[in-house]
Design a protein that fits this description.
This protein is mostly helical. It folds into two domains: 222 residues, Rossmann fold; 96 residues, Tyrosyl-Transfer RNA Synthetase, CATH 1.10.240. The chain contains 15 helices and five strands. The strands form two sheets. A three-stranded parallel sheet has the order 1-2-3, sandwiched between helices. The longest helix is centred in the C-terminal third of the chain and has 30 residues. It is globular. The structure holds tryptophan (TRP). The site of tryptophan has 13 residues, from strand 1 and helix 9.
């Protein structure tokens, strides 16, 4: 027994936590879909893993050249992430441009990335369509910079949505090519999520996902004021009720129940579920007006503390700057260790 205990103790101390990394683009306000799709996962990971989360401001330059609004957005995104529960003492929370080691790794990886494969990337093709007047090389090599972001910390788990699968696959390809050409250096990174918790949150019109850029009235932002939240929920799409007991729910109604499941008590959800299931044509028990009123209040109670905390932080710029400086220090310690190995491997060390 005692011997086992000792062995387990040694294993524990020798076993390093796996490295998790994700990047957040600072282009717009965070919304409920971001919260339940990403941030809630980050918060959960911070105790289990060695976590790096950063704001991808270099990436933003590929599509948003105006750096004046960018600075403000970067600080807001940092504040919002902390308000959602990320603890800068536990994780490294930093701004990409504060870690120049990433740029050097990006340079080496660029020699391993081929024009043809970069041009074929879905996100690149989408962006070419969206901004045909500014198809810059940064846009083309976006996946290379993303690979550098990940590999610089030798991260293996990358919590991202489905739309990032292709970029992750490219990161693995670049890492494999590097390992093949210069010797085993990088572990291969994979997209990661707590599967059971991936909820899809649609806009309040029941069409598409909540989105930073599309119809602002159908997306609940973490920065929305109480009355704005009430107004948006009130305007959410409903209909005149189910025509038969235990009907299937239309998407826009299901979405209201999903939202309620996330922010309301189990009793409340059950009451409206029962009302829905017991309703039929000519006997409509569920009252969507009441349901939305309840949802609005529970939503206000959910979002208000996050908004308030994020605002407090944004008004305390000194503290925010201290946090990102501390994040950069932690990130650079890890990044420079990797880069030193990389420089040796590539044959760039002369001194
Ligand atoms: N491309 C990601 C997005 O659009 C943001 C990002 C940049 C990222 N670098 C990353 C995500 C590294 C994960 C890992 O959301």
């Amino acid at each position: 027994m005692a011997k086992n205990g000792v062995v387990i103790h040694y294993l524990r101390t020798a076993m390093k936590k796996e490295i998790v990394l994700s990047g957040i683009r600072p282009t717009g306000f965070l919304h409920l879909g971001n919260y339940f799709g990403a941030m809630r996962n980050y918060v959960r990971m911070q105790d289990e893993y060695d976590c790096y989360f950063f704001v991808a401001n270099w990436h933003s330059l590929t599509t948003h050249p105006d750096t004046k609004t960018l600075q403000e957005s970067v600080l807001r995104v940092v504040a919002e992430n902390i308000a959602c529960g990320l603890d800068p003492e536990k994780v490294s929370l930093y701004v990409q441009s504060d870690v120049p080691e990433i740029a050097e790794l990006y340079l080496y990886l660029n020699m391993l990335a081929y024009k043809g494969e970069l041009e074929k990337t879905t996100t690149f093709k989408d962006k070419v369509r969206m901004q045909p007047e500014n198809v810059n090389a940064g846009l083309l090599t976006y996946p290379v910079l993303q690979a550098a972001d990940i590999l610089i910390h030798r991260a293996v788990k990358v919590p991202v949505g489905k739309d990032q699968e292709q970029n992750l696959e490219m990161a693995r390809n670049f890492a494999e090519r590097f390992n093949h050409r210069y010797g085993e250096t990088f572990p291969l990174p994979y997209a990661f999520n707590y599967n059971s918790e991936l909820v899809k949150i649609m806009g309040l019109d029941g069409i598409g996902k909540m989105s930073k850029s599309e119809n602002q009235m159908t997306t609940l932002f973490l920065a929305d004021e109480d009355d704005m939240i009430r107004l948006k929920v009130k305007k959410a799409k409903t209909d005149s009720g189910p025509l038969a007991p235990n009907s299937a729910k239309p998407d826009y109604i299901q979405n209201l129940f999903t939202l309620m499941g996330l922010v309301s008590s189990a009793d409340t959800v059950k009451k409206f579920e029962d009302d829905f299931n017991n309703s039929s044509e000519g006997n409509c028990i569920i009252r969507y007006g009441d349901m939305k009123k309840q949802l609005a209040e529970d939503m206000v109670n959910f979002i208000n503390p996050i908004r308030t905390k994020a605002l407090d932080l944004q008004n305390n710029k000194e503290l925010l700057l201290k946090i990102i400086r501390q994040g950069a220090d932690k990130a650079r310690t890890s990044a420079s260790a990797t880069l030193s190995t990389v420089r040796k491997a590539v044959g760039m060390e002369y001194l």
